[in-house]
Amino acid sequence: MQGQVLNCDQARLQIAGYLEGSPCPALSEHLSRCEACLDVCVQASLRRPSDVSVPGHFGQRLLARLPEAPPPEIHERPWGALVAAILAAIVAVALCRNGEISFLAAPVVDALRRPAILVAVGATETTLSLLWLWRIWRECR
Q1: Parent domain of 89
Q2: How many domains does the chain have?
């Protein structure tokens, strides 16, 4: 079939021989252009028995090399989030002092001057800090 253009039906008839090792340039050309036939070829190759033989003792040797117990879990610490929050606060303070975002800071400062708001913010920050510390303490035990 040298120099011949195959249609899908002809190509699919050639796949078995192609997988056995018979050269077929027309089929190779067809498979490079036709996704459906390429999928049929891949599926046929996956259904074929393997030519590789595995020694009988391979499984036992592999299992013998595995560790007895899984390695201990590594607990991640959320230090990255804490560092990012501190850096964000430092940048915000620096920008406020330079007056670049003072128009945004003024309403916040006015709100924080009210005792009820200040107590609510303090309670929220304290609660979040205690929850974060409790989580770290649990992970370290």
Answers
A1: 80-140
A2: 2
